[in-house]
Amino acid sequence: MEDVLRPVIVFGGALVLAYVLAWGVDQLLSRIDARHPETPMWGLLRRGRTPLQAVLFVALVRGFFGTTHLAKGRPETVEAVQLWLMLIMIAASAWLVVRVVAAIAETGASRYAGVAQDPARARRVRTQLTLIQRLVTAVVTVVAIAAMLLQFDAMKTFGTSMLASAGVLGIVAGIAAQSTLGNLFAGLSIAFGDMVRIGDTVVVDGEWGTVDEITVSYLVVLTWDERRITMPVSYFTSKPFENWSRGGPQMTGTVFLHLDHTTPIAELRAKTEEVVRASDAWDGRNWSLVVTDTTPSTIEVRAAMTARTADDIWTLRCEVREALITWLREKHPYALPRVRTTREPELPPAEPKAF
């Protein structure tokens, strides 16, 4: 009877004690979070309660496993239990580390965003912390899986034999993973080179959109029509692209009109000023209207205006284009381009030929 009660008491007691300790840590973090609302880290650390319970449970069981008397005459049972406890300990520890790193990264990004005067710098820090978090998560996951595999004797023997050819395997793996490693270093270059950040407005391959997500291997662009374009991060380090948010969100937009030579430019310029000043999207910095080109049949008129963001400049361009076309159609329809046709001159009657 004692051989049955001892394991039950040890495992049950470890489970209860782990739950109580984790609950106590959770309550402590909750109180600290209530006293320090300026930082979300303490509340985010509460997400690690479950992996903390698993780590405490395994640690307690491993510490008191000798008192269960399961080791008497059963070495294979002891080895199996110890193996599974070690596997659970490694997995739970990796899970806990990932949760702690995520809490630190989110806290750093949110606190910097709250004090930064420049939204672009806040997006830069957020991009860097996100990439660092995902890189650390990947490294911790790989190390945890490798540590778990090395707990098996067969994997230890396999690993020892593989060390002899590590140089050749490293070269082969480097060649095979050239694209993956290139994307990895490109992601780090993007994070710390400040080429593109989460929230930036970009134009890639003729597609206009906002950077929605950046990982160590790919980047997601959310287009204006809510499509998501996934691209390798190496694209942004090897090919040119437009970043409308770099150097400040303000932009200058243009509207081109092809009109007739008889267009009243002075009145059109006054109408452009009226439309631009009446728009909420205009930032009040600058506007202009000039004739930029001429052809035998039309003239090219360019209206330029400024706005605070890329979204505002798009809205302002559409408003100006629509307002000017409507005004010309109603007030000066002759100014719109048209095709002129003329009647062929009549030829004089042919004189009769003399025979």
Helical fraction:
55-70%
Strand line-up across the major sheet: 4-3-2-1-5
Distance between the termini: 145 Å
Whole-number total of structural domains: 3
Task: Give the DSSP E fraction (strand runs of 2 or more residues).
Answer: 15-25%
> What's the average pLDDT?
77
- What would you report as the Rg, rounded to the nearest angstrom? 35 Å
Q: In one word, what is the shape?
A: elongated
Unreliable sequence segments: 162-169, 171-177
Overall strand count: 8
The secondary-structure class comes to alpha+beta
**What is the N-to-C succession of helices and strands?**
HHHHHHHHEEEEHEEHEEH
Describe the protein in words.
The chain is α+β, with helices and mostly antiparallel strands and 355 residues long. The protein folds into three domains: 179 residues; 49 residues, SH3 type barrels, CATH 2.30.30.60; 85 residues, Alpha-Beta Plaits. It contains eleven helices and eight strands. A hairpin with a 4-residue loop joins strand 3 and strand 4. Helix 4 packs antiparallel against helix 5. The longest helix is centred in the N-terminal third of the chain and has 41 residues. The radius of gyration is 35 Å and the shape is elongated. About 4% of the residues have low confidence.
